Amino acid sequence: MSSWIDYTINGIIIGNIYALLAVGLALIFGVSRLINFAHGSVYVVGAYAGFVAVTQLGTPLPLTIVIVVAVGALLGLGIERFGLRPLQGYAHIAPLLATIGLSFVLDQLVQLTFSPDPRALPSELLERRFQVGSGTIGALDILIAAVGIGSAALLYYFLRFTRLGWAIRATAQDRDAAQQMGVDVNAVNRAVFAIASALGAVSGLLVGMYYNYIDPAMSFQATLKGVVAQVVGGVGNVPGAIAGSMLLGIVESYGIALFGTSYRNLFAFILLVLVLVLRPNGLFASRRQTPPEPMTGTFIAPSKPIQISYPVLIGIAVVMALLPLVLPNPYVLQTLTNAWLYGLLGLSLTLIAGTVGLISLGHAALLAIGGYASALLSLDLGMPVGASILLAGVIAAAIGTILVFPSFRLRGHYFSIATLAIGEIVSLVILNWESVTRGPIGVAGIPPLSIFGFELDTDRSIYWFALAVLVILAALQFRLLGSHLGRTLRAMRDDDIAARSYGIGLDRYKALAFSVGSFAAGVSGGITSHLYSYINHETFNSQLSILALTIVILGGMGNVTGAILGSVLLVGLPEVFRVAAEYRVLIYGLVLLLLVRFRPQGLLGTI
Amino acid sequence: MTSAPSTAPQPAEPLLALEGINTFYGPVQVHFDLSLKVGRGHIVCLLGGNASGKSTTMKIILGLVKPASGSVHFAGQPITGLPTPQIVRRGVGSVPEARRLFGEMSVRENLLMGAFTRKDQRAVAQDLDRVLGLFPKLAERLTQRAGTLSGGEQQMVAMARALMGRPSMICMDEPTMGLSPLWVDRVLDLIATINREGVTVFMVEQNASLALEIAHHAYVLQTGRIVLDGPAATLRTDPRIRDAYLGGQDAG
Question: For the CA atoms of chain A, what is the radius of gyration?
Answer without folding.
Answer: 25
